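A quick aside before the break. I want you to see a complete sequence-to-structure record at least once, exactly as it would be stored in a machine-readable document. Don't worry about memorizing anything.
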Amino acid sequence: MLAFTRRFDSLAALVDTIVVLSPDSIVLHVGEAIEVPSLVQKEARRASGEVLPTYAGFEDIEDRSVATFTQAGMAGVKPGRTRLVLTVMSRHAHAPPSYVLVVVIP
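That is the input. The structure line, written in tokens, reads:
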């Protein structure tokens, strides 16, 4: 497990930018769930612009009272707006987070 963690830490340290290719935003109905990994297309880049083949990424929801993660994926809880936060999963990473707007409608 230690070797696995070190490998991802070393890959994550190379990331300078997380670019969300699509979508610009996600619209959900209350109670609807979607699979985030298949929907959100993203890539990690170095400062030179080189695209990295993989990186240890983490996804979280800013306001879990509006949307949350369930076994079915990201689900709408109540009408409102929040953001899906994409970060690099490493203590040594210096890339700022990227965001996808999430809108939950009745």
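Two observations worth writing down. The chain has a mean pLDDT of 85. Residues 83 and 101 are 5 Å apart (CA to CA). We'll return to this after the break.
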